Amino acid sequence: MAGHSDIHEYLADFEDIPGTRVYTAARARKGYHLNQFAMSLMKPENRQRWLADERAYINEWPMTQEQREAVLARDYNRLLDLGGNIYFLAKVFSTDGLSFVQAVSTMTGMSVEDYQAMMVAGGRSPEGQRSIKGDS
Amino acid sequence: MAGHSDIHEYLADFEDIPGTRVYTAARARKGYHLNQFAMSLMKPENRQRWLADERAYINEWPMTQEQREAVLARDYNRLLDLGGNIYFLAKVFSTDGLSFVQAVSTMTGMSVEDYQAMMVAGGRSPEGQRSIKGDS
Amino acid sequence: MAKITAGVASSHVPLLGVASDQGKDRDDYFGPIFAGYDWTREWIAKPENKPDVVILVYNDHASAFDMSIIPTFAIGCGERYAPADEGWGPRKVPDVEGHPDLAWHIAQSLILDEFDMTIINEMDVDHGLTVPLTMMYDKPDAWPVKVIPLAVNVVTYPPPSGNRCWSLGEAIARAVNSFGEDLNVQIWGTGGMSHQLQGQRAGLINAEWDNMFLDKLIGDTQDLRHVPHIEYLRETGSEGIEMVMWLIMRGALGKSTKCLHRHYHVPCSNTAIGHIVLEPVDGSVPPSPTLEGNNDAAQAAI
Amino acid sequence: MAKITAGVASSHVPLLGVASDQGKDRDDYFGPIFAGYDWTREWIAKPENKPDVVILVYNDHASAFDMSIIPTFAIGCGERYAPADEGWGPRKVPDVEGHPDLAWHIAQSLILDEFDMTIINEMDVDHGLTVPLTMMYDKPDAWPVKVIPLAVNVVTYPPPSGNRCWSLGEAIARAVNSFGEDLNVQIWGTGGMSHQLQGQRAGLINAEWDNMFLDKLIGDTQDLRHVPHIEYLRETGSEGIEMVMWLIMRGALGKSTKCLHRHYHVPCSNTAIGHIVLEPVDGSVPPSPTLEGNNDAAQAAI
Ligand SMILES: [Fe+3]
Ligand SMILES: [Fe+3]
């Protein structure tokens, strides 16, 4: 199997996309309990307990303290770095009553108004956003 | 796709084996709640409730009355006809404290002693047991 | 005999469900999006087009499946499915009625065809499945079609390759063709088009690439089979990968297709909306290559 | 580099677990069965043979999976697994420790190779997995090996074909070969041999067929790929179908094998016990045929 190109090369490419964390096994493992915590907010009784005392509720989950603080701060970029997946994290911001646009815009460094204006104008161009190495 | 041989032919063959019910989709659908009931006996608290009052416990499950009576009678051949699967039904006879040999022998029309003697002597021969049509 | 008569693709942005549920679907923002579905709503209501069953290819967004179990391809063989609670209560839309006879037939056929399906009998269905129903049928008291959910993992990497998705579509067509009952079956591919919901690059839209993708669903090219995951990610944002699900739909339509209707709009929330209605021209698919399964040559080899 | 150094097959009759747990494993009934494993216990304890990780192919017997979800191929990527309660309390054997690094590597590689895996992070494991550990390791305080559970559906029809199982084995070998860490990996196939646990035909045993099957695991023949399900059912009883799982083990050993040890005994409970230890002679497997994945030709085609 000379010249064999495998899962390592496949995964390595994913680290070359600007401002993007692809949800690979490495991230899924790191974020396991963080994401399971977020998932628990699909049940109304859990949402109530969470809203009543966020810190008490999150302390029940076997997450790192860093992950807990990032959830409490609603720091979504940080949460992605700590293994969060956006569809799981969506249970957190949905419980806050935020839409995808409101929550997602917080990760871009733009105000929600500027972000929305960018979207209405056709969205973020892929030019210069495709590759870190290739700078294209 | 002329000459196409498909899932229908694949499944039809299974009805040609003497004294055997292959656990196909048709059986899995018929026995769905029967098997889910049996599965519930994996939990000790359910086993206790079941042993305390079998009829009350089984009436909680959305099964046919025929399935319920066959369970209460431990009629395993009947249960196979009604969509039961042996690995699910095993939770019922395990809860009764029966081994696989004890429970399985009840389906053969043999006493457990005769069945065990047959096994020690090398088991049931496949001769004449392979096909209903082919009689081989 | 059952037959796949059409393929439909559509984005499934959750906000479209919200817009419909709150009666905002004809306002300035959503009007142009929903207007692009008017043609389809009229077409699908005509008796000659009305499907009996839709095989609805979608992905679960951390609703039915959490991290404890991640099936690559899961087919719903159950009687019915309730809308999932995604964090703000379940959508107030009808339950989704299944078609267990056809679903089990397809599931069994696919496994003989060497697709390693996960069979699901009980699950809730999220916006990925209910939003396309809304787009096609508006707000009926009951969905006027039975649905076979086909959930694809596009969240945890790797999702299935484009080639695998296309081949699955072909195998679905073989399975439908061998079902005895007369049924008008449609297959829908959902998700996409370009969008990225995460990080500093969120909001990415690539109208040019999206339209190339729509172009290549039409006719007889199979180029899209060979688009690697990294291209979806670079060109269409991290959630653009959902488009691999459209290839299951395309594969099921066979050798060549005709476009009946096409719609593209930016934006809806963070996403480019794409919608296409395709009809098979030559619906033939290759015979099954498997040994256990489906053709004379294979049977002879046993 | 990780490497598959041996393949082991063994029946996994629950009664063997009971015999071991109750100290009856050397009585008149069980003695001859366990005696056939003495060679293996000695062999596997030698430092040069001792595996770091076992990929343990087995089937769940309505323990971790009920009828609500039925994965064809499920791979355990979790940290650990507890013995399941099968109706008389869990076996008092150690928890099973996983190897998430290798398991995720294999899972990801298999999906690129177009196997539609279900990834499992949490589950209990039943006799199908714990009995083979007992047979190979007796009663240690902790299992001296890490285990990657690979659960195959052989309960609800259709199970995967023999050919699909063999091909999965080949893909597992490719995946293990591309794992960076030095690991001695074994693969075990469990279940079988002939047995039927249901109906008037229960107790069926076919020693001749079983021994033909054992013969054909050795050397370079690939005949067993092509045995259809109906043959297992007719010849070896309805539960003999479990033997397709042995083909995953055999496929992973590559082109040709040598037999190091072999054992066959009738009966154990309702079942014929079979056990074989194989070593790859030429462990080469075909390159990945997929586009997204694994070889130069495929990559060039993209
Ligand atoms: Fe989506
Ligand atoms: Fe078994």
UniProtKB/TrEMBL annotation, chains A, B:
<dbReference type="InterPro" id="IPR036622">
    <property type="entry name" value="LigA_sf"/>
</dbReference>
<feature type="domain" description="Extradiol ring-cleavage dioxygenase LigAB LigA subunit">
    <location>
        <begin position="34"/>
        <end position="120"/>
    </location>
</feature>
<dbReference type="InterPro" id="IPR011986">
    <property type="entry name" value="Xdiol_dOase_LigA"/>
</dbReference>
<keyword id="KW-0560">Oxidoreductase</keyword>
<dbReference type="Pfam" id="PF07746">
    <property type="entry name" value="LigA"/>
</dbReference>
<protein>
    <submittedName>
        <fullName>Protocatechuate 4,5-dioxygenase subunit alpha</fullName>
        <ecNumber>1.13.11.8</ecNumber>
    </submittedName>
</protein>
<dbReference type="GO" id="GO:0018579">
    <property type="term" value="F:protocatechuate 4,5-dioxygenase activity"/>
</dbReference>
<dbReference type="InterPro" id="IPR014159">
    <property type="entry name" value="PCA_LigA"/>
</dbReference>
TrEMBL record, chains C, D:
<dbReference type="InterPro" id="IPR004183">
    <property type="entry name" value="Xdiol_dOase_suB"/>
</dbReference>
<protein>
    <submittedName>
        <fullName>Protocatechuate 3,4-dioxygenase</fullName>
    </submittedName>
</protein>
<feature type="domain" description="Extradiol ring-cleavage dioxygenase class III enzyme subunit B">
    <location>
        <begin position="9"/>
        <end position="273"/>
    </location>
</feature>
<dbReference type="Pfam" id="PF02900">
    <property type="entry name" value="LigB"/>
</dbReference>
